[in-house]
Amino acid sequence: MGESSRRGFVAGLEDVVAAETRLSGVDGEAGQLIIGGFRVEELAGRASFEETVYLLWHDALPDSGQLANFREELAGRRELPPATLDLLRAAADEKVPVMDALRMAAGTVSPGTDDEEALALVTRLPAIVAAYSRMLEGEEPVDADPELGHAANYLYMLTGEVPGAEFTRALDTYLSTVSDHGMNASTFAARVIVSTRSDFVSAVVGAIGALKGPLHGGAPGPALDVVFEIGDASRAEAYLREKLGRGERLMGFGHRIYRVRDPRADVLAAAAERLYTTDGDMELYELALDVEQTALSLLAEHKPGRNLQTNVEFYTALLLHGLQLPTQLFTPTFAAGRVAGWTGHCFEQRELDRLIRPQSVYVGSRDASWMPLAER
Ligand code: ACO
Fold first, then answer.
1. Over the stretch 57-67, which tens digit does the pLDDT of each residue have?
2. Which ligand 1 atom sits closest to the C-alpha of 185?
3. In whole angstroms, what separates CA 152 from the centre of its chain?
4. Which string of b and e fits 221-252 if b means at least 16 CB within 10 Å?
5. With a cut of 70, which residues of the chain have pLDDT below it?
6. Which of 45, 83, 172, 186 has minimal CB crowding within 10 Å?
7. What pLDDT, on a 0 to 100 scale, did the predictor assign at position 207?
8. Does the annotation mark 255 as catalytic?
């Protein structure tokens, strides 16, 4: 037995409990996700994103007066200051990827109280993504419309057009569905940063960096690319088999915690079905369902007993594509939803006020002798 396992080292901190939270609970065996006391199926699709954020921060749904006040608080913070716009323009000139531009621009949120920073981060993230996406296309940013809610404003700032109710509902469903998810990597990163008594802006900047990786929030773009590359259901099996044969992972499948189907996949699948049947490319939708089924049967063959299932990212890709968002906005839009949970966890960690500082086990040599530079 090596020293590491004797001292309880667990690569990836699997099964290690790092926090107590009332924000969300994930039961990976039963395939259940609770957000702020509600099963995700109960909440998403009904709650506006503002209601979900309020629920996470205050542990209760707002009444109509509280909701109106909260919407107003957010509305007053959507405008991006000149320093943020300048930074985004410079990034657009260099064609910086959207997640990197988002990480840089999130850092321009002014220091304030925890409440002020949390409100600004929730409102600014989508405003930054929308403005930057337009700049990349050589277009001017569109100012928010104070009459519109959070989700509708995001689509409005992206396109300059007021979205229909079906689009707004689909985006609200998505943002609430991904608002929080236990001790995922980006949330853990945010909590570690706040635990040093650092600020919420720094925590969210760090969380954006963690979310960007392909094993976390970077999967939906590649998941959809696979569907496009396959192009026709008859090619799905050969294409996916070859990918697995090369030792590649199928994006949108598998999860560290879920051992059954990710319940968010069902919520988003239902939202995607509603969206595509009212206003979408049904051919693509059907193809995606075929690709999913083929992937599931090949994964069962590839890792028997592991029960690799569809995760949230597969249907995220389909839903956000149905909302006419380009692939490069999928992960940034995930950030715009998850910022609700990041900030909620920042509040919890602030209250706990305990530095997160785990141990490591030294596994290097212990008797090295110094060698002068000329002799190395
Ligand atoms: N395709 C192919 N093989 C897979 C996949 C997949 N999607 N997922 C897991 N495996 C394999 C692993 O390579 C591993 O094989 P090995 O034992 O030969 O090394 C085996 O199945 C078991 O893997 P796990 O331990 O269950 O995987 P882990 O917990 O480390 O990873 C993860 C979970 C990162 C999500 C993984 O399933 C994956 O890479 N999926 C694809 C990327 C993706 O969709 N990410 C989004 C996740 S959801 C979210 O973060 C919001």
1. 999 999 999 99
2. 50
3. 19
4. bbbbebbeebeeeeebbebbeebbeeeeebbb
5. 1-7
6. 83
7. 98
8. yes
